[in-house]
Specification:
12 helices, 6-stranded parallel β-sheet, 3-stranded parallel β-sheet, alpha/beta, binds NADP nicotinamide-adenine-dinucleotide phosphate
C-alpha cells in the first residue's frame, strides 16, 4: 500500500510553529492582499488567506480595485503598501486583467515584503541559496517531504513544469536538497521515459491526470501539484474508472478535483504520494503565513 502524504497534517505543523513566533513579536505581522475585480476562484483563495491570518493573529487587509484598474493605478497601490511600516507582506492575487502588466506590478513590490517569493530578487536569492521568501507551493513541498522523512539527497527528481511560480523554484529547492534534478516541459521528448527515471516525481503541468502509470517508476515518491476541476461526468467516470465513491461525490457537488497525476495509477505504482485534494493544496497558505511571519521578524529585528 502506498503511503499517503497528508498535506493538512503538515500545514497544521507549520502553523503551530508560527503561533509562538507571532506572539513573540512586538506587533502583529501585517499582510496586505490586493484582489482585483471579481474572479470567483481568486475570491475564495483570498478569503482562505484572510481566515488563516485571523486564526494566527496576523493583521490582514484586502484592497479591492475594480476590474478596470490600470497598471499605473496598481503600481500606486503597491507603492503605498511598500511605504507602510506595519505592512510586512504584500500579495497581488493572480490572475490580473489583461490590460495590467503583471510583471511590472510584481517587480514594484519591495523584495523584503514579497511574501509570494515571485520578485526576481527573491528568485535570485533562491538560486544562490540566500535567505528570503521562497515561492510558497514548492517550499511547502520540501517541508512535506522532510516531515515524512523522505530522502531527497542523491535521488533523481523529475519536475514536470517550468513555471516561475512552481516548476523552476521546485527544481531549485530540490537541487539545494542535493537531488539530481531534471526539468520537463511541453517540448520534452518521450516525457514518460524521462518521468520514469524519477525516484521523486513532481507533476506541475496543469493537465488533468496526464501522468499515468507509464510515467511513474514503481516505488517512486509522487508529488501532485495540479488542481483541475472536472465538471464533465463522463470524463470523471473515465478518470475514476467508474468508482462508485467518486461518482457519488461528483453527483453531490457537480464536479470533482483531480491533480496532474492519474489518481488511481499513482496509488497503484508509487511508494508514497500526495492526494488531490488534501496533498499539496493545504501547504501553500501555510507557507504564505510562514513567509509573512519571517518577513515581520526580519523587518522588526
Ligand atoms: P503553468 O504556468 O501553466 O505551467 C505549466 C507548465 O507545464 C509549463 O512549463 C508547460 O510547459 C508544462 N506543460 C504543459 N503541458 C505539458 C505537457 N503536455 N507535457 C509536459 N509539460 C507540459 O502552470 P503552474 O502555474 O505552474 O501550475 C501547474 C499546476 O499546479 C496547475 O494545475 C495549477 O492549478 C497547480 N497549482 C497548484 C497550487 C497549489 O497550491 N496546489 C499552486 C500553484 C499551481 P511550457 O513551459 O513548455 O509551456
Amino acid at each position: 500500500m502506498a503511503q499517503i502524504l497528508d498535506g493538512a497534517r503538515v500545514r497544521d505543523a507549520i502553523l503551530d510553529k508560527c503561533k509562538p513566533r507571532v506572539a513573540a513579536l512586538p506587533r502583529p505581522p501585517g499582510l496586505a492582499v490586493v484582489l482585483v475585480g471579481h474572479n470567483p476562484a481568486s475570491e475564495i483563495y483570498v478569503r482562505n488567506k484572510v481566515k488563516a491570518c485571523a486564526d494566527l493573529g496576523i493583521h490582514s487587509e484586502t484592497l479591492s480595485p475594480p476590474d478596470s484598474v490600470s497598471t499605473g493605478e496598481l503600481l500606486e497601490i503597491v507603492e503605498g503598501l511598500n511605504r507602510r511600516p506595519e505592512i510586512d507582506g504584500i500579495l497581488v492575487q493572480m490572475p490580473l486583467p489583461p490590460q495590467v502588466d503583471g510583471k511590472q506590478v510584481l517587480l514594484a513590490i519591495q523584495p523584503g515584503k514579497d511574501v509570494d517569493g515571485f520578485h526576481p530578487c527573491n528568485m535570485g536569492n533562491l538560486v544562490t541559496g540566500r535567505p528570503g521568501p521562497k515561492s510558497c507551493t514548492p517550499a511547502g513541498i520540501i517541508r512535506l517531504l522532510q516531515h515524512y522523512r523522505i530522502r531527497i539527497a542523491g535521488r533523481k527528481a523529475v519536475v514536470v513544469g517550468r513555471s516561475d511560480i512552481v516548476g523552476k523554484p521546485m527544481a531549485m529547492l530540490l537541487l539545494h536538497e542535493n537531488a539530481t534534478v531534471t526539468i520537463c516541459h511541453s517540448k520534452t521528448r518521450d516525457l514518460a521515459a524521462v518521468c520514469r527515471q524519477g525516484d521523486i516525481l513532481v507533476g506541475a503541468l496543469g493537465r488533468p491526470a496526464a501522468l499515468t502509470a507509464d510515467f511513474i517508476q514503481p516505488g517512486a515518491v509522487v508529488v501532485d501539484v495540479g488542481i483541475n476541476r472536472i465538471a464533465d461526468r463522463e470524463e470523471a467516470a473515465r478518470l475514476f474508472r467508474d468508482s462508485k465513491e467518486k461518482l457519488d461525490a461528483f453527483d453531490r457537488k457537480g464536479s470533482v478535483l483531480v491533480g496532474d497525476v492519474h489518481p488511481l495509477d499513482v496509488a497503484a505504482r508509487a511508494s508514497a504520494y500526495t492526494p488531490v485534494p488534501g496533498g499539496v493544496g493545504p501547504l501553500t497558505i501555510a507557507m504564505l503565513m510562514l513567509n509573512t511571519v519571517e518577513s515581520a521578524e526580519r523587518r522588526l529585528a
